[in-house]
Amino acid sequence: MIAFVQGHYVYLLLVVLFLTGLYGMMVKRNLMKKIIGMSILQSSVILFYIASGFKDGATVPVLDPSLGVDYPDYYLNPLPHCLMLTAIVVAVVTLGVSFALIIDMYRTYGTIEEPLLLERMKDEE
Amino acid sequence: MRKPLCLLLLFALGALMAFAVSGLPPRGDAKAPSHRLVNPAGAPVAGTYYIRHAYADARTPNMVTVILADYRGFDTLGETLVVFTGSVAVWFILRRRKP
Amino acid sequence: MRSASTSPIIQVAIRGLMPVIQLVGLYVFFHGHYSPGGGFQGGVLLAVSVLLGRLALGMEMSQLVFRTGIAVGLSAVGVLVYAGTGLTALLAGGEFLNYGYLPFPGFDPPGLRNLGILMIEGGVTLGVMMSLIAIYDEIVESHG
Predict the structure, then answer these.
(1) Residues of A in contact with B37 (CB under 8 A)
(2) Which of A78, A106, B81, C64 counts the most CB atoms within 10 A of its CB?
(3) What is the ipTM of this complex?
(4) Angle subtended by helix axes C109-141 and A78-109, to nearest 10
């Protein structure tokens, strides 16, 4: 049990972070708070990938001439880092687009509270 | 009213994910399948292949840059297109509509 | 947000900080081959230097740093630089984005790949920087 917690505590904490983000997206009624929850959820997924690329005692994936490349255990796994680099940028852009959508909704309906918004959308029909 | 149901669902999902975590190799284990030279199915693993061949292929010490721009160049092209599309989409959403 | 900050401390500090951030951004971009960094990070730093000016100096003053309205076009240019590098390799006989076939004399294939990575990182930097500036400008402009 102790060995399991020592080896996996990062993943368990990331599960908590993931659920925090999902809670924000499911329960909160304000669209801005939903976006904040989405951002937290994205961070937890990114951190999960970075944690899974870690090796004990390894250095950053930049070639060190004194180490060489014959023993890959000297370097962290570069693939998750590369994938998450692109994921972070996409997360920023989705944040920008969702802010634009929220601004447009506020301009059209005058609110970003979900129940009120649904009510006003129904009234307009 | 809706909140207890959501919390129950979240706890169920959390239990499922904690169970899934117990199947992962420990963090930092250099013998994990994703860090080995050959995975249990007998195929070469991408991460170690990139570490061994990045400098010889592109003469660039930073392996992440080589993967990003060379091995996965097509992926990054799509990525840049997504960023550009995002800026255009914001313009189309927020432009002044004629009343 | 569109008017200039009234505090002289912020005005002077941002004016001194902007070129430093631009320099760090260019360093991160050009040194991406040898240390953590690259196109995305350098582009974000360059965009942040312009956006700091937008926040502190106001929309009108910061037009001198970067004009509103050309950002989307330049972002398209960034994507075209990227795709053009890939198409050049395609027309020179290789596969799409296979930099080993770029038609530059005097390089062996690894050197050509090094050069190709630098070229597409330039495209990525331009694309990301201009896209972020464009998103900010569009959101602020639409509010007035």
Answers:
(1) 72
(2) A78
(3) 0.89
(4) 20
Size of interface A-C (CB pairs under 8 A): 25
Q: Which A residues 10-69 touch C at CB under 8 Å?
A: 60, 62
Q: Which has the closest alpha carbon to C75: C43, C103, C101, C105? A: C43
CA atoms within 13 A on the CB side of B32: 20
B76 closest CB neighbour out of A18, A78, A86: A86
Q: For every one of its 125 residues, what pLDDT tens digit does chain A have, with 9 covering 90 and above?
A: 888 888 899 999 999 999 999 999 999 999 999 999 999 999 999 999 999 999 998 999 999 889 888 888 899 999 999 999 989 989 999 999 999 999 999 988 999 999 999 999 999 87
Residue of A nearest to B96 (CA): A104
How far is Cα B67 from Cα A107, in angstroms, rounded to an integer? 43
CA A100 to chain C, closest CA, distance in angstroms equals: 7
Tokens of B97: 């509509």
